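Subject: design request, 954 residues
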């Protein structure tokens, strides 16, 4: 990283005069047929009707491009292609009204070459200097002409394009840039560096655009290698010489400390901290091929390290003074670094020798307003602040590398980054098969490390995401090559796979609570709820840290109120389709309720996912997918935040940070449901990855639903909690009888350290009356025979019709958890639902406390159960308990439906109400349900025919 890489020569020309800002108006011409070079637009000028655009920017964002149609040449896989054939999507395939369901849709689309042209005035003082054109971020390949002269091309997706224009005569010159956003190299159609799934396949130049006049001898690269133990840094300076020949010179290095609260950060170097060192270039002096100098820079015994708790930074200035051919040349380069070392201790990652726990989420290049990533620091400060407020400490940039501004913001905040090459070599692409992507990956890796390697926030790197081909042998070499080249961070072969002995850490899809293809057999769907599960077997199975790959992927329902936020290039036409489907199903008035209910279940699952990782001693960490929504791949609404990093209304940062942060109390509970005559027993574990050990009091309390305390107790007093997650206390026993039940209660564990910090976490539990046989009132008939139910209800009876899963013939996969990723991209993987919406004040739940959203007491009832399709029933009928269907289908579903039939009344249940054995929640709901049916409150508003009831068996 070089900040202000070429400062002015002392006592000569002001710095601004060595640089020209090229932002502003450029003429632009689209060239989809590729005729511009043949017609020599660089010499003859762009066509006469060429419009004016502003750079930095993209052509699409400024309205240049084609309307989206069925033949739009998208970049990205479409797994569910029913959009192109299904009658349901026919209205969205009409010319002029095309709307796609699988990602955000740009207002206009363009793929091909775009030409940008303007005149530039070269100052007289630039004579004798090389002129460098710098384009901060280009999508994708740039080709440059000065007048009629072809300068060359660049093709980086990760770093600035820098082209040497040579020595330009003072005066006016025509500068022409052609940018082509077609696939230069097959990096994979779904790579987030190029794909329409996320940022979109934009065309243009964003960030800084400039011309810089450089001296004959320049500092070409500065690498800073910190040494925490020695409180020093090795400064490695590369010097480039031009064609003027050899000479002699001196390198001076100095540093100042900043970004430390309480320290003066402005003014003279000496106002804060300064170190300086000078070194002659040596007897050989400076040759025409350049030179290299290593400088040991002591930072002092009081030097501060950089980490997530105190991100002290140092600004480094390298001054080069040379004498070439009797002329003095002066160049100054600046960079920022931190006294930081990242390493591995057994199966955990260390920062400056202290164990840490990676709590990351993905950033997948999702920027709906512009369709391209921001290059200003403030935008990234916002994203990082939101992540930190939710207790996270790392962003993983999935198959792309962010601009400089993201690293700067992360440095300031003490936030970690896993950057990746712009590659997802899968879905037709592959590594290790001698395709062009192999060489391109090596090019891009070098560029990334050279451009951003000094940033202390840059702690981890993968080649990209989930490779295909002969990936293992190819990436083993990739890891060893780049770790040798730049050992300042940890390397892994790929995000997802392969797990190689060469890796510093494994970023693999195991372990996690729900994996691809597990469906209803995943842990949260297939096993009764508890909070003891961890991943100790995985930790014991390998010698390196594991950072779980893309855990979570729990969906919430689309937030249809979010549509108004999309005021830029990318439009949520997919949300319009989903809203139409919901209206066709007669449920448009339930959109907000679906969002809230599914969102609370999503949060519940993320909490258990994260806590299971934190419970695992020696575990390395996790990457969420994700804290924010992913708008592509079929529309994956997996975040508690929307694509703008804003709350969707059902979760807060404070609530999330209770179970995700540097210090998290954990309760290891064998179950979630208890009876009033039982002690609630559990162990307490503290996952503490703070700045150092703490001394703390650990306590528990039990609260009722109104927050009133039912009981409390001490777990430990004045206990020392070291850094790590191996601290355990217990067993702890909450006395029986604090509530007679039925009640929903909250167990709270508090860790209060002697310095005044307080950490709390909580778990909802259910306490029911002691087990007793559930008797059926004489006034209620319970049957699973539909014919009997219809006959008896028609004659005036009160009936509970219990339908088993084997009686219901639809293909809706009902699970406890919400859908994983989304049903379109996973080809219908189970579950298809997103929780069960219900009114907690409905009298059927009088003896079954619930909140209106799916919580752990519903697990027994939903496990193995089946949803009923209600689309053939009267539109006014709303089920008592309503599973929320995937938004791609929006079917009206029910698991509890009440109605009048003839002279009688009926409740139809497809829940598993079997009261036998240890099924406490099922027994309690059955008791509450029968009490309701036998009482005066049971007065259904809607009437069903026998044929309606039979339709539930489809």
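Subject: RE: design request

Done. Sequence follows.
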């Amino acid at each position: 990283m070089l900040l202000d890489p070429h400062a002015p020569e002392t006592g000569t020309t002001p710095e601004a005069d060595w640089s020209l800002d090229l932002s502003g108006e450029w003429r632009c011409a689209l060239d989809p047929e590729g005729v511009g070079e043949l017609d020599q637009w660089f010499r003859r000028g762009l066509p006469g009707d060429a419009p004016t655009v502003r750079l930095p920017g993209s052509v699409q964002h400024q309205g240049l491009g084609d309307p989206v149609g069925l033949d739009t040449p998208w970049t990205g896989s479409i797994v569910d292609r029913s959009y192109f054939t299904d009658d349901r999507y026919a209205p969205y395939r009409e010319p002029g009204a095309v709307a796609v369901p699988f990602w955000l849709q740009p207002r206009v689309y363009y793929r091909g070459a775009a030409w940008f042209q303007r005149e530039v005035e070269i100052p007289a003082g630039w004579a004798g200097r090389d002129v460098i054109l710098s384009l901060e971020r280009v999508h994708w390949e740039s080709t440059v002409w000065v007048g009629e002269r072809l300068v060359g091309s660049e093709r980086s997706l990760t770093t600035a394009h820098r082209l040497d224009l040579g020595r330009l005569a003072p005066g006016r010159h025509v500068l022409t840039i052609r940018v082509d956003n077609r696939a230069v190299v097959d990096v994979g159609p779904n790579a987030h560096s190029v794909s329409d799934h996320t940022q979109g396949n934009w065309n243009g130049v964003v960030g800084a655009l400039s011309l810089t006049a450089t001296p004959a001898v320049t500092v070409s690269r500065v690498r800073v290698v910190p040494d925490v133990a020695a409180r020093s840094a090795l400064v490695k300076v590369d010097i480039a010489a031009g064609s003027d020949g050899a000479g002699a010179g001196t390198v001076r290095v100095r540093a100042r400390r900043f970004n430390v609260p309480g320290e003066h950060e402005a003014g003279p170097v000496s106002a804060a901290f300064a170190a300086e060192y000078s070194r002659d270039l040596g007897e050989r002096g400076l040759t025409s091929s350049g030179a290299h100098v290593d400088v040991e820079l002591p930072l002092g015994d009081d030097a501060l390290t950089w980490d997530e708790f105190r991100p002290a930074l140092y600004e480094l200035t390298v001054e080069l003074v040379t004498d070439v051919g009797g002329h003095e040349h002066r160049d100054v380069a600046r960079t920022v670094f931190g006294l930081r070392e990242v390493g591995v201790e057994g199966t955990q990652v260390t920062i400056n020798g202290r164990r840490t726990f990676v709590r990351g989420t993905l950033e997948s290049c999702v920027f709906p307003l512009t369709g391209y990533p921001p290059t200003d620091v403030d935008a990234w400060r916002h994203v990082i602040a939101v992540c930190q407020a939710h207790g996270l400490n790392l962003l993983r940039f999935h198959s792309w590398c962010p601009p400089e501004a993201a690293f700067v913001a992360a440095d300031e905040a003490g936030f970690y980054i896993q950057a990746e090459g712009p590659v997802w070599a899968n879905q037709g692409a592959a590594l290790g098969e001698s395709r062009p992507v192999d060489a391109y990956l090596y090019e891009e890796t070098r560029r990334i490390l050279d451009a951003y390697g000094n940033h202390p926030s840059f702690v981890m790197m993968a080649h990209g995401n989930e490779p295909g081909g002969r990936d293992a042998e190819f990436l083993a070499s990739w890891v060893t090559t780049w770790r040798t080249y730049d050992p300042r961070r940890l390397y892994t072969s790929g995000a997802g796979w392969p797990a190689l002995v060469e890796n510093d850490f494994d970023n693999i899809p195991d372990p996690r609570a729900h994996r691809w293809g597990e469906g209803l057999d995943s842990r949260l769907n297939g096993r009764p709820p508890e909070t003891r599960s961890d991943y100790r077997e995985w930790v014991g199975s390998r010698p390196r840290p594991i950072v779980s790959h893309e855990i979570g992927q729990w969906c919430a329902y689309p937030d249809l109120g979010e549509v108004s936020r999309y005021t830029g290039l990318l439009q949520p036409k997919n949300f319009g389709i989903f809203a139409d489907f919901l209206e066709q199903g007669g449920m448009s008035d339930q959109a907000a309720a679906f969002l809230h209910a599914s969102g609370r279940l999503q949060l519940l699952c993320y909490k258990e996912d994260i806590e299971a990782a934190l419970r695992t001693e020696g575990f390395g960490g996790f990457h969420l997918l994700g804290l924010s929504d992913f708008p592509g791949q079929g529309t994956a609404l997996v975040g508690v935040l929307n694509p703008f990093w804003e709350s969707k209304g059902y979760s807060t940062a404070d609530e999330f940070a209770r179970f995700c942060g540097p210090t998290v109390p954990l309760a290891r509970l064998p179950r979630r449901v208890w009876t009033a005559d039982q002690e609630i027993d559990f162990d307490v574990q503290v996952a503490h990855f703070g700045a150092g050990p703490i001394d703390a009091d650990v306590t528990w309390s039990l609260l009722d639903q109104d927050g009133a305390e039912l009981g409390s107790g001490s777990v430990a007093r004045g206990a020392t909690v070291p850094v790590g997650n191996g601290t355990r206390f217990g067993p702890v026993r909450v006395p029986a009888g604090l509530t007679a039940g039925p009640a929903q209660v909250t167990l709270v564990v508090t860790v209060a350290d002697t310095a005044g910090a307080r950490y709390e976490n909580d778990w909802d539990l259910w306490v029911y009356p002691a087990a007793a046989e559930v008797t059926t009132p004489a006034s209620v008939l319970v049957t699973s025979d539909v014919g009997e139910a219809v006959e008896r209800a028609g004659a005036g009876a009160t009936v509970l019709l219990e339908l088993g899963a084997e009686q219901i013939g639809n293909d809706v996969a009902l699970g406890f958890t919400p859908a994983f990723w989304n049903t379109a991209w996973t080809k219908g993987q189970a579950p298809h639902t997103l929780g069960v919406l219900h009114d907690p004040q409905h009298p059927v739940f009088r003896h079954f406390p619930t909140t209106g959203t799916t919580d752990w007491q519903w697990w027994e009832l939903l496990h193995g159960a089946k949803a009923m399709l209600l689309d053939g029933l009267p539109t006014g009928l709303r089920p008592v308990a309503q599973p929320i269907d995937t938004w791609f289908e929006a079917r009206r579903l029910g698991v509890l439906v009440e109605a009048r039939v003839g002279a009688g009344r009926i409740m139809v249940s497809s829940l598993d109400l079997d009261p036998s054995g240890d099924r406490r929640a099922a027994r309690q709901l059955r008791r509450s349900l029968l009490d309701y049916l036998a009482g005066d409150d049971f007065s259904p508003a809607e009437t069903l025919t026998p044929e309606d009831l039979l339709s539930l068996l489809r």
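Residues 1-14, 265-274 have pLDDT under 50 and may be disordered.
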